[in-house]
Amino acid sequence: MAHQIKPLEFASIRALDGISERTMREHYELYKGYVSKYNEIMGKLEAADRASANQTFSELRSLKVDLTFALGGVKSHEIYFGHLGGTGGQPEGKLAEVLRRDFGSFEHWQADMKATGLAARGWVWLAWDHDWQRLFNYLGDAHNVFPVWNATPIVALDTYEHAYWFDFGRNRGQFIDAFFRNLDWGVIQKNFEKLAIK
């Protein structure tokens, strides 16, 4: 079954603080491309020759590797777009408590997220590690390089240049500050609540 493109609420992105509508529209077109390629690859996988599968090169290997890149792009962008459009600030309730527990304070989490974003080549995810029962800021240099199994992202920060170049040039730090100012903690809280942490 084909994945459907999630609509972007352009009314809310017109009001983003520091991130332009042009950036968001161009960025959204990239996301749509990942959805399209994911669907295309899934279609090609149905007919792929499994008898010739080989770890050095084969049609199946190429399709499966490229699928992870497209799918990672789809999922990360859906988280990213989904929690932009808010007014920043800080979370409340259990999410705030867990951030304080795992990072020492909200400010320490934010500082670590920003530093991780400056170090990343592609993405940063605040994710819940189901094995170790904690939140952590993970770095991935590409859509398909999420480094930890059994962890669920609840915040995604895109650090590829397309996410900020029109607005900030090479000043990624200013973009990350704008990212924080536009987070919708209500959406992030819902992402967190789906984890059903006790």
Write the layout of secondary structure elements.
Elements: H1 10-13, H2 21-47, H3 59-82, H4 93-103, H5 106-119, E1 123-129, E2 134-140, E3 151-158, H6 165-168, H7 172-181, H8 185-193
Helix pairs in contact: 2-3, 4-5, 5-7
Would you mind describing this structure in some detail?
It is a single chain. By secondary structure, the protein is mostly helical. It folds into two domains: 19-82; 93-193, Iron/manganese superoxide dismutase, C-terminal domain (minor pseudopilin epsh fold), CATH 3.55.40.20. The chain has helices at 10-13, 21-47, 59-82, 93-103, 106-119, 165-168, 172-181, 185-193, and strands at residues 123-129, 134-140, 151-158. The chain has a three-stranded antiparallel sheet. Strand 1 (123-129) and strand 2 form a beta hairpin. The model has no long low-confidence stretch (mean pLDDT 94).
At a glance:
The protein has eight helices and three strands.
Distance between the first and last residues' Cα: 34 Å
Strand order of the largest sheet: 2-1-3
Shape: globular
Structural class: mainly alpha
Q: Class of the largest domain in CATH?
A: Alpha Beta
| Rg, Cα atoms, Å | 18 Å
Question: Which homologous superfamily in CATH is the superfamily of the largest domain?
Answer: Iron/manganese superoxide dismutase, C-terminal domain
Main beta-sheet strand count, sense and barrel state: 3 strands, antiparallel
Mean of residue pLDDT values: 94
- Count the DSSP helices: 8
Helix content: 40-55%
- Low-confidence stretches are none
Number of strands: 3
SSE order, one letter for each helix or strand: HHHHHEEEHHH
Please tell me the total number of domains: 2
Classify the fold: give the CATH topology of the largest domain.
Answer: minor pseudopilin epsh fold
Task: Give the CATH architecture of the largest domain.
Answer: 3-Layer(bab) Sandwich
SS strand fraction: 5-15%
